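In this supplementary section we document a worked example of the pipeline. Step one takes a protein sequence of length 580 as its only input; no multiple sequence alignment statistics are reported here. Step two produces a three-dimensional model, which step three serialises into structure tokens for compact storage. The input and output of this example are shown verbatim.
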Amino acid sequence: MAQEESSIVVDQAQSSWSDLWKKEDYLAIWLGFLIIAVSLGAYFLFGPKAEFTDKIAAANQIQQIEAERAPFKTIAWHQAADDKKKLKGSSSAFGKFASHWTKKPGSWKDNPMDALIRSEAQAKAMNDKAMPAYEEAKAKLAASLTAAQSAEAAAAAAGFTDTALNDQAKEKIADWRAADKKAGSAKAKASQKPYNYIPGLIGLCLFFIVIFGAGVSLMGKSFSQFARGFFIVFLVTVLAYLLGGQALSKQYGLGAEAWGILLGMLIANTLGTPKWVLPACQVEFFIKTGLVLLGAEVLFGKIMAIGMPGIFVAWVVTPTVLVLTYIFGQTVLKMPSKTLNVVISADMSVCGTSAAIATAAACRAKKEELTLAIGLSLVFTAIMMIALPAFIKAVGMPEILGGAWIGGTIDSTGAVAAAGAFLGDKAMYVAATIKMIQNVMIGVTAFCVALYWCLKVERDASRRVGAGEIWHRFPKFVLGFLAASILFSVLDSSLGKDMSAALLDQGAVRGGTRLLRGWFFALSFAAIGLSTNFRELAQYFKGGKPLILYVCGQSLNLVLTLTMAYIMFYLVFPEITAKI
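The serialised model returned by step three reads:
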């Protein structure tokens, strides 16, 4: 008997170790960190760090001298700041290589092929059309710079002691900065280049087959079956990006995620998804790997830049809304499925699809329940990213308050940035930062749901639930998300603001992890659509309770977030608001 028990323990230990290279969660971590390692190595070990160090030091010296010389930011100070912003790791050879081979279809208005191919003749025609506006913008920029230089010289002649001259100089410098921004935009429109994204997309498809196919093989599934079906999944994803890049789609916030689910569902419920495609619909493998990469974008330093107001908005309101929505679903709506209830509650209150995936893994929700929650999230995200900024503008809400409201209520990180930008730069910064703070809740939510499900929902009186069961339930890929967040936060704080922006944000993230993270998320949504049957989904939508739950929960979220944002940003910490 003792030998049998010993044998069982040994088998469990061996199984636990083999999980590290056979289970989906761990494979998502290894793949995510392989991409992170390549990105960091390319920009830090072989990148232009030494060159950037010298240029940043020179620019900082100019800014320090100018700050001591004048009581306002001078022209030279702004030019030094511009010089630092031009330092981007993604401009290196590796950055250009990574960008080229991960290109998504571009924007288009009338002809969808414009998103994939642009001839030299088309590029020249676009440049010729935009050139007059660019020349006009350049002329205005030159004139505004001359006026700013004159005003600054007058203020300097008075030793910067004349308040009126100082104010006039600041005004003229502000006009010059605005003209510079417009000229930059006009230059971009007049600098179009020919392209052909099709070869790159083919290469990217083969790359994805190799990296995800290797993971599928380690999980004991067929590489050849995955590879054959993946071409269809990738094609649907490319079509989703294509439709998401259309001018009207972009205007109404219908991105590749929404189109991927819609196209996939359309195929699955009309023609029917071929059985040989289904092995490639590795929804959770795609999105879990993407979530590990998302951790690289959640930086503690940026979280603390807004400080306590943002933390209260994200970390107090979010769990409150989640718990109250779940209770409402169980006691008032009497949702038949607790797992569907908690997945919708987490999706709506935390940060959309990312939280839904983690929560579904923690409570072992059915695939159809996860699909339904994500579908609701995408629909309401598209509505809110248009409606919320319009409402904020209409009522004259302060920009920072509006940004905080957007960041705490709209689900998708990309939609949050777009909606915040509609209000202004400050609103976009506040909205994106609060969403980043909220993203930290992914791991906490998954752990708490796993704990609650083990100790309360599925508790069996005949056996004692220990730490082992909770660990078994906990979605391990969340550890990869947290590890990536900690790693990049440490690098961010150690490098300093300017070098971090150049090599981390504009290098390893924007020129590496984020490029692939977007693709992984888009692949997962296309796979969700292709593997979704309306008949299977209908039973979970019975009575419209999931929709009612989402609407009521989001309504509570809107009210509590706005209230908390006003209290924190304008009553408790107004000094922080004044510095933003």
